[in-house]
Amino acid sequence: MGMVGGGPGAFIGNVHRMAAALDGQIELVCGAFSSDPHKSKEAGESLFLDPKRVYANFEEMILTEKSLPESARMDFVSIVTPNHVHFAPTKLALESGFDVICDKPLSFSTEEAEELVKIVSQSGRLFCLTHNYTGYPMVRQAKAMVKAGELGKIRKVVVEYPQGWLSSFLESSGQKQAGWRTDPTKSGKAGCIGDIGTHAENLAEFITGLEIKELAADLSTFVEGRKLDDDGSVLLRFKGGAKGILFASQISIGDENNIRIRVYGEKGGLEWYQLEPNTLIVKSGDGPNQLYRAGTNHAYLSSESHNAARLPAGHPEGFLEAFANLYKEFAQVLRLRNEGKPFQISFPTVEDGLRGMKFIDAVVLSSEKNSAWVSL
Amino acid sequence: MGMVGGGPGAFIGNVHRMAAALDGQIELVCGAFSSDPHKSKEAGESLFLDPKRVYANFEEMILTEKSLPESARMDFVSIVTPNHVHFAPTKLALESGFDVICDKPLSFSTEEAEELVKIVSQSGRLFCLTHNYTGYPMVRQAKAMVKAGELGKIRKVVVEYPQGWLSSFLESSGQKQAGWRTDPTKSGKAGCIGDIGTHAENLAEFITGLEIKELAADLSTFVEGRKLDDDGSVLLRFKGGAKGILFASQISIGDENNIRIRVYGEKGGLEWYQLEPNTLIVKSGDGPNQLYRAGTNHAYLSSESHNAARLPAGHPEGFLEAFANLYKEFAQVLRLRNEGKPFQISFPTVEDGLRGMKFIDAVVLSSEKNSAWVSL
Amino acid sequence: MGMVGGGPGAFIGNVHRMAAALDGQIELVCGAFSSDPHKSKEAGESLFLDPKRVYANFEEMILTEKSLPESARMDFVSIVTPNHVHFAPTKLALESGFDVICDKPLSFSTEEAEELVKIVSQSGRLFCLTHNYTGYPMVRQAKAMVKAGELGKIRKVVVEYPQGWLSSFLESSGQKQAGWRTDPTKSGKAGCIGDIGTHAENLAEFITGLEIKELAADLSTFVEGRKLDDDGSVLLRFKGGAKGILFASQISIGDENNIRIRVYGEKGGLEWYQLEPNTLIVKSGDGPNQLYRAGTNHAYLSSESHNAARLPAGHPEGFLEAFANLYKEFAQVLRLRNEGKPFQISFPTVEDGLRGMKFIDAVVLSSEKNSAWVSL
Amino acid sequence: MGMVGGGPGAFIGNVHRMAAALDGQIELVCGAFSSDPHKSKEAGESLFLDPKRVYANFEEMILTEKSLPESARMDFVSIVTPNHVHFAPTKLALESGFDVICDKPLSFSTEEAEELVKIVSQSGRLFCLTHNYTGYPMVRQAKAMVKAGELGKIRKVVVEYPQGWLSSFLESSGQKQAGWRTDPTKSGKAGCIGDIGTHAENLAEFITGLEIKELAADLSTFVEGRKLDDDGSVLLRFKGGAKGILFASQISIGDENNIRIRVYGEKGGLEWYQLEPNTLIVKSGDGPNQLYRAGTNHAYLSSESHNAARLPAGHPEGFLEAFANLYKEFAQVLRLRNEGKPFQISFPTVEDGLRGMKFIDAVVLSSEKNSAWVSL
Fold first, then answer.
1. Residue D58 maps to which CATH number?
2. Entry pTM
3. How many domains does chain D divide into?
4. Which of A212, B105, C275, D195 is most buried, by CB atoms within 10 Å?
5. Are residues D143 and D232 in the same domain?
6. Which residues of chain A from 185 to 244 reach within 8 Å of chain B, CB to CB?
7. D29 part of contact set with chain A, CB < 8 Å
8. Per-residue pLDDT tens for B55-96?
9. What dihedral do alpha carbons A9, A12, A18, A24 form, nearest 10°?
10. Does D340 lie at the interface with B, CB-CB under 8 angstroms?
11. Within a domain: residue D343?
12. Has residue D373 been placed in a domain?
């Protein structure tokens, strides 16, 4: 694997590296870790890379690696840059014949996203978008249970993602993460709703298998001087009649990454909360609520859930393990594809990424139209 | 105290009686417990009442008691009937010189509510509306902390009240509670949003001291054959700039009375959950979240919270104790008023009741207008 | 009901009064609330009692009431004094023909307890010991499940009762509760282990139906100057082969009344925690753990649990409601007995009280013998 | 790193590999994964190892690697075999000049353990024992707080490790993990108390810095046919006067790896629970309990805790991350040592391992002597 981005001061780059390393299936062999060649070098050294394969920029990396013999070149590219630098390296990598795994949201704009869908299709390459919350074993369990009809027809979805870290004007302090995420030239047209609202949207659709038909949104910017939204509340209507509420916030002071989802059907309900990710609360109308627990051992869990766990229940797996599941599955699919074998994709794709961008568009438009319903 | 309603099969009548009895300050002395005189008698007997003071209907009760010498008559009237039978006994009681404590929502319609506001004012009598969740010690604590500025300016409120008991077409089974609550001739123009949505609205305004300026709502009726809404999602905008989300649902299968509120300000946040009512989570941006615990003993709690507790922390107080607080405070205020002493009202009033009715109107109107913003 | 003790500054007297009042079945008609006649009068006034029935001491109360016509006298006596004043009023009340409800532990010494067992038996009166934790609906549920064999043969019991309120030398401050509870002339030979350890012992035997055969204990007094133990750890062996651990502590700083019990059998397990008393965690080896929830409505609960609840699930009932269950059941049994009808006793009795005293003896003896095993 | 053990069907071997891989600091370069050379080969292949460095047994591995040029040989040995195969490879590795990281408990017997202490000392090599629970950020935080005196003098420790997986006679089914852990020829003289009781013992001493002075134990074997204890309860007395309770169980049906510790001092208390490892409950006598949350970001956490976290709060880290911390720290210390720089050891050592073996001896002896106090 070769990496684009993730140099000093980056947050998500290191997450991707640990996620890729965990299962011993993927080796980081090269990278263009920063737009500053000196910083890229530094990063490469600290990662024990061959200095020759630490590149000054992504173009150099992709083109040089492409020129290597097949057995010597990187197998795929991991893109972990801010949103505005997703499109170009993804496009170049795909068109150079490399499979790509990329951080979310897919791109800076919906136009870019639509073009990427085409490029993926034309290239025949594989593309994984790291909506990492889909990698949790109990999220897989939830999806499997909905799919199997255990909840009956879905009626209501409540998905939320409150954070508190942007309660103050942190971007004025030089904090790098706050900086680009609140900067419309890097993040795109949305702040909070793009950064974490898309996770909530993706999680709701991933678990329920339902598509949002239309939405009505009210975005806010509470912190003075901030250039993008830092809070958003959205009413949802799904195809097929289910209703929903989605909210995301970065001014929910004292909250961490409190992404939580509740799904209610005619026959049963589910509740999952990322801060205690190994538990899935399963609800029924008649019996007591049940605590399903992630692990490789419980016979009552689905195979989808078992596959996403590494350890028996009682050995908590967390954020990195869930993230690593996407890498592991991506690597498995690549191997099967390379061996000409059939494969199934369980990770989020470029189409999910396009959907996220359309969600951002719809939320922003609805909010501009004083919360009018906007089709997705 | 004399009671109107609360005969065999009633739910809330018994709650009111236990709440009134708990602190040994109030004695039930008479009642018109049912529109069926026979059932009223039966109820009176089981309550050890003097048969002469068990009446066939509320008119008889109020007029007969009024005719008794002052020292012998009931001190006030408690009204625990379904919504459509709030107005008439309240009006008669007030106009007959009795103070009134009445279950929520205030009335069948906003017109009735507006008239009741006038009647209360003209009568000079005291009126308490049993929005019982306001009686919890930690709700009082939350209100006191917001008022004292400990959270800074409020930015965001999330209040929810999911229940699951009406996930099926229960009203067709003859279940009495389901019957009248889903019947527009008894409940009024709203189902879920009137029955429990008003609790959520009241709790949000009670704690924050903010008024909802406008709202955008999406009501649903998920259960086929049901005549009123059984689920509603509402975006809120408060005067002063805070935003909010309110949702109430009776089809959230597996949920009980999961009323929960989260309040986020510039400096801190609060979270309270009725199923664990003795804990208030207090959040700050810098330090760890704190678990404030209800009780008479903790020096860090406000006097408002201490006053609403009976026992030191570790002796859980619940729903009935919170309900009893309204009765206890009502009795205290009556006593002070009767003694000509100054008093402060800490329980919900007829104005809060009118506000609840206007909230129902606005939600229903907004939903009819496809979630357009409607002023409250 | 007439009350002995519970005057100004008392804690448990008020608890008993609220518990007795809650269900509208019991009326406080007289009392000897303090050994100081003036204070007793004061208490009686604040409780709206007929001044003639507020007595200067328990002898006066019991003898005067006995002399009243049957229809006019109190029905039973409630004794809420410190431990050293349990025996005399209980004996006099029983021998005067009154039924008795008494706070725990039963008496100052085992000798007194043994005599009380005899007196109860000879008097033919009913006696209830307020081990109030047995009144919780989910404790009743737990007992019913064990009895029905749902856990299989019991193997292990862990029962604990950590408190923190005596972490400092509070008795030196004049705090009344701390004063008598740490005073061997009032509390008896044990401090913590008598005050709360007996609750733990009783709860374990109540739920499991097992009897402690022998125990090995290690008592400590951590606070300098304290005259009795403030912490104790006990290994348990039950008749039939189950093992257990019991610990009680009053120096567990930051803990409230964190009484918790876990029971493990061959087929299943149970966990209950008083700070969240409406939930019973039910464990099995195969399926997910389940959250049983107290309430009148859940069909999966036992009748014993239903009978101990007043409200449907979601309306938290607490400490006072559990306490009130003992009063309610005591009153029901009295009524049935008076009507010559058959009755079943579900509340703790004088035999349970004697058992508690023997437990105290055994713990103290074992601790003196450096934790040697001592039979109970 | 070269690995001894961890072939097909092993549980802990894979844990060690993932833990070693996570941070990109350690590479698995060789192994003797099974006593069956064929299985060892298989394992090596699946791990992408050079077939020449997949050895038939640990002797071959250690001696062959030793014969390689320094730059080409493995840096250290990881030993992940059952208890009875800890001693021989550890001894050989140390005496061959390799540093060693080894799973717990240290050895099959105390004699072996004492010899290993000597060998480590004589060899001058580094040795890490993977008492993995010490790797959790909030365990480090707890230790740091105790050390800094924030709790005052420690009075009471309650540490427990209930599991339910051996509630039935699983070893008769051929399940490999159950097989060796209940076999006295592989596990040693203790079952449950050796396998998980030592974790509890180690955790208590690690956090508090206190040493167990003496203990009184009651071991049980509940499952018929089982050859070793499956449950144990232990009273503890620490040097300096603190008291404690330790219990471990493998028949606590429905429990996972519910290791939990509570520490109470004169000024404050702590509670940590492995199933929710990112929270540390911090208790005080006066203020509300606080929820300290693991992460790299919270300024209120100690540097020891920060160093053990990889991500800001809200990104749950789990069992593997804690395990990986020991590997990461071991690698750091090796690097510093190799560079001749000063270093500090934060991971458990061979002395801790010897202490664990003595704990096992004392528990078994005390239990044989009917719970007499035995010095450690």
1. 3.40.50.720
2. 0.97
3. 2
4. B105
5. yes
6. 216, 218, 220, 222, 231, 233, 235, 237, 243-244
7. no
8. 999 999 999 999 999 999 999 999 999 999 999 999 999 999
9. -130
10. no
11. no
12. no
